[in-house]
Design goal:
2 copies of one chain form a homodimer. With about 325 residues, chain A is of the alpha/beta class. Chain A contains 9 helices and 12 strands. The first copy, chain A, folds into 2 domains: about 130 residues, ATPase, nucleotide binding domain (Nucleotidyltransferase, domain 5); about 170 residues, Nucleotidyltransferase, domain 5 (2-Layer Sandwich), CATH 3.30.420.40. Helix content of chain A is about 35%, strand content about 20%. In chain A, the strands form 3 sheets. Chain A has a 5-stranded mixed beta sheet. In chain A, helix 3 crosses helix 9 and helix 6 crosses helix 7. At the A-B interface, strand 9 and helix 7 of A face strand 9 and helix 7 of B.
Amino acid sequence: MKQYVFGVDVGGTTVKMGFFDVKGNLLEKWEIPTRTEDKGSHILPDVGESILKKMKEKQITKEEVAGVGLGAPGPIDSEGVVHRAVNLGWDTFSIKNTLADILHMPVMAGNDANVAALGEMWKGSGQGSNDLIMVTLGTGIGGGIISGGRVLTGAGGAGGEIGHIHVDDTETESCGCGNKGCLEQYSSATGIARLAKSRLAKSDKESVLRHGPVSAKSVFDAVKQKDALAIEVAEEFGRYLGDGLAVIAGVINPDTIVIGGGVSKAGEILIDYIKPYYEKNVFHGSKDVKFVLATLGNDAGIYGAARLVLDGGANKAD
Amino acid sequence: MKQYVFGVDVGGTTVKMGFFDVKGNLLEKWEIPTRTEDKGSHILPDVGESILKKMKEKQITKEEVAGVGLGAPGPIDSEGVVHRAVNLGWDTFSIKNTLADILHMPVMAGNDANVAALGEMWKGSGQGSNDLIMVTLGTGIGGGIISGGRVLTGAGGAGGEIGHIHVDDTETESCGCGNKGCLEQYSSATGIARLAKSRLAKSDKESVLRHGPVSAKSVFDAVKQKDALAIEVAEEFGRYLGDGLAVIAGVINPDTIVIGGGVSKAGEILIDYIKPYYEKNVFHGSKDVKFVLATLGNDAGIYGAARLVLDGGANKAD
């Protein structure tokens, strides 16, 4: 009788681990460091060891565990094969097989942003939806798409890469991905700060942003104080993101768009700047979408990873 | 023992019908007129009658038939409910239940462009792919997305609506959908003719297009004759479509993009104008996509509709 499931979210510095019952109640969570040395070859053995230790501590057997789900930052295809994850030092190999060989339990793996979207659908602000887009506004922009209740993985595991859609032909600076004019260059935390700095440099307009460090947080704090220059930045942020989401949602036809990541701590005001641009350009069949803020925070990944296992192949082409 | 399946493609003037074996061999095809009068209320009874007649003629029983799949122009959700199909006079109702009540056999229904994409995946130029985008360049632009082997239906059946993604902020003319700057306004047959007429009016450049009717066909015929103005139009067409597909494919991560519809009769030269723009802007994870021309022509819809039944709920959220 399968009663438990593990959800693992591998980040660049720490691995988050969650121990759940199969109904999705988080019974315990903990972290271990991510050892990226030696091409990241210690990461999966460390995860395996930590899970086995937890099972011993809880006195549960493999027969009671449905499996282990894992999300990681990189393209991971429907077979659980990662195709290079630069931040972890990983080249191309099967996460699924490697971890299953260590644990002798079923393993499922997916891209971290896709898996987080699944987590929000299951236990976060996307509950009740089968078709949602999650956009994670952090240092970069992560994206995850759930279509018909399933993670949209794509042919090579690069499905849901919302941060790198091309949104501006006039851009002269390069994005981290090598292209120019990616959404991430405008609407991530880094992008918002960049837009603000550019506006501050180009005008003499007085702004509270001139008197402290410029960040996505300081911009939206200033917006709440009705700072005119900050509001211009927020409009620009919203136009890029609203226009971009209008194109994506026009073809995905979700009922819910979840906004997460550090920038989303600014609150509902964020949606006020995105939604008008979204509604202006989106195909009418996708206009009535619900915009919500993510509620699981950093736990979305472990929830989604656990769910991946319970879906028993939800990220597999079948 | 299920040996046969029917595929039905409802168009504005005719209904195409296909009688297949379950391996996907088209045994016979025929057409009946689409009677759009009386709010299209005769269409499904006509389809039902025609199928029963064919079964009688072939002396096959309901026990031998896996079911009937149907594609129609309009948003059709995962439950087989159409949400208004203006061209047919249809309001909102369950196609699946209505036709099943007539036939007493399993029925599946989907949007015609989505279903055509499934057809090309099964028996056309998308064979071997599980993740593809099909774009149909006709009077308008239709789109269909297959992700993980399944039709991307969307929450309200508007999934895959590629023709109405917003691609130009400067457009002053309205699209049929009510928005301005939709892809369809530039890269459909109508859009290509519009781009050509606009260029002819704005310049004095000599062109073979000045000496005959201007259409998508005449433009690409002129391109093949190295007509300079026609080549400018082809570049503009390719930039809009290549840029648009780069955004969509960036999040869908397909391995194949199928170009179909009347415009695709221009041949491989079409791809030469789309691909460079696509490759310039797309996220690197989706760069190595295969561009192919559709091969099933007007039969893609009946093939895909038949496949919908054999997948037994491939367009259902489950």
